[in-house]
Specification:
Layout: E1 6-10, H1 23-33, E2 37-49, E3 52-62, E4 70-72, E5 76-79, E6 85-88, H2 96-105, E7 113-115, H3 118-123, E8 140-143, H4 146-154, E9 158-163, E10 173-176, H5 182-193, E11 197-201, E12 210-216, E13 219-227, E14 242-245, H6 252-266, E15 270-276, E16 279-284, H7 291-298, H8 302-314
Helix pairs in contact: 1-8
Length: 316
């Protein structure tokens, strides 16, 4: 008889989830189809009590309903050491609540599999970890020094500016070398996001899409090209980008091969890397998206591969 696992999911409120697009939805649906119990809690509801890691939340089931897709049980306090696996699936921002949750999760019994490894989630911010692979990233500066940013912009015809800890295409700006507006744009971004911003050479191949490549335990399982709206530079689905079928193109195979040993070694089981042209631009480790778009375009079910691979780790 197949073992029924007890799964906790640390994520955003269920009411915010779009069941037609969200990757967590299909992951949880597959878990429940396999007979697993699923428990939901918010990052703010995890606590450390005399060396016991607890979470306040509820068990829930996905249901077929026009009004809402889930049915939840009464709120209760649980010991996270009683679970086989904890999935970290909340969206950034990378703030102190986020960091505190990673400290708590890494204190769990080693028998509890946490996906992704909380220490390495904390140590690999989406836009910073690419610097470990300097030969496959575009020219990039991270700074809040106005002069340094202005000098960087002077080296390229066009430059992309984006917040260090934003997500979903938030705050992305494209600036042109020599524009009189650049200083004002930089100052506004530094003030709004309260710290360093990213300056990155504009990659003209964005017109062919920003490719989201899904890697499970370091292995390539699927990809989708996110195409910006006409006149836009934002390819993220949250920012209006459209999905287009794609395989491994440009240097994708090489990039995946370079990343695999690092991701496996760090326990970054579920990652979504972003590639434009020949360049790696982000390594998403907290709550990668793109599963449903890949499924729909290729008639596959990545969530099945997800659980097939993860079951082997839980069963050890």
């Amino acid at each position: 008889m197949k073992k029924r696992f007890n799964i906790a999911v640390q994520m955003d409120p269920l009411e915010r989830i779009n069941p037609k697009e969200d990757s967590t939805f299909v992951i949880v649906k597959e878990a429940q189809d396999r007979g697993y119990k699923t428990f939901h809690y918010l990052p703010k509801d995890i606590s450390l009590n005399n060396n016991i890691i607890t979470a306040r939340g509820f068990y829930f089931k996905i249901i077929n309903s026009n009004k809402k897709f889930f049915k939840k049980e009464k709120t209760k306090l649980v010991n996270l050491n009683d679970f086989h696996c904890v999935l970290v699936r909340q969206d950034p921002p990378f703030n102190m609540e986020y960091i505190t949750a990673t400290y708590f999760l890494e204190m769990l019994n080693k028998k509890v599999i946490v996906i992704n490894n909380p220490s390495e989630i904390r140590n690999n911010p989406e836009k910073l970890s690419i610097f470990k692979f300097k030969n496959i990233i575009p020219p990039t500066l991270i700074s809040e020094n106005l002069n340094e940013i202005e000098n960087f912009i002077k080296k390229n015809l066009f430059t992309i500016l984006k917040p260090m800890y934003g997500n979903g295409g938030e705050g992305i700006e494209k600036v042109k070398k020599g524009s009189l507006e650049n200083k004002k744009i930089i100052q506004k971004m530094i003030k709004k996001y309260k710290g360093a911003i990213i300056s990155q050479k504009f990659i003209k191949e964005i017109c062919k899409g920003d490719r989201r490549i899904i890697l499970l335990d370091g292995d390539y399982v699927g990809s989708v090209a996110r195409i910006p709206k006409k006149g836009s530079i934002k390819a993220n689905f949250h920012a209006g980008g459209s999905a287009k079928k794609t395989g491994l193109v440009f240097q994708d195979k090489k990039i995946c091969k370079i990343l695999k040993p690092y991701l496996k070694n760090k326990g970054l089981f579920f990652t979504g890397i972003d590639v434009i042209g020949n360049y790696l631009t982000e390594i998403n480790v907290t709550s990668p998206t793109g599963m449903q778009e890949i499924n729909n375009l290729n008639s596959v079910r990545l969530e099945k591969i997800f659980w097939d691979k993860l079951e082997k780790k839980i069963n050890r």
